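pls design
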């Protein structure tokens, strides 16, 4: 085998840099494809329960506040995993019946009060959850009946 002394070749340093760049590019593409990297940090929903009262023997109220970075829409309220027969909401003014046909938008920083009509037994724990249009489930918020 004959070695050519005057042939032009790629420098080992340049070849190493190209190899590292290709490896990094492929790893970023694979990570993004698998969902490990998320470039949507500003539109996360966050909802907190801020108040809860047992109003009467068959009625209780709770308030939720949107503490996330953007508006959200509440589509369902559940009691122990099931949608209660009657749910009311009130941002300001009078109580209005809440159904799946009347989802409620909640701007960033706003609160919304819900009233749930259901009989409860003293000393028993009940779970409350709120579901948004994006399918996020907030809760369960667990309270024991007085």
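designed seq:
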């Amino acid at each position: 085998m004959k070695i050519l002394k005057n042939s032009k070749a790629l420098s080992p340093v340049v070849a190493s840099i190209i190899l590292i760049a290709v490896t990094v590019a492929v790893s970023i593409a694979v990570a993004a494809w698998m969902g490990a990297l998320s470039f949507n940090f500003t539109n996360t929903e966050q909802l907190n329960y801020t108040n809860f009262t047992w109003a009467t023997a068959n009625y209780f109220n709770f308030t939720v506040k949107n503490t996330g970075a953007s508006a959200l829409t509440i589509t369902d309220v559940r009691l122990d995993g099931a949608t209660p027969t009657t749910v009311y909401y009130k941002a300001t003014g009078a109580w209005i019946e809440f159904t799946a046909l009347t989802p409620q938008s909640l701007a960033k920083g706003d609160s919304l009060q819900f009233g749930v009509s259901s009989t409860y037994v003293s000393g028993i724990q009940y779970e409350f959850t709120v579901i948004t249009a994006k399918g996020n489930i907030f809760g369960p918020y667990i309270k024991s009946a007085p």
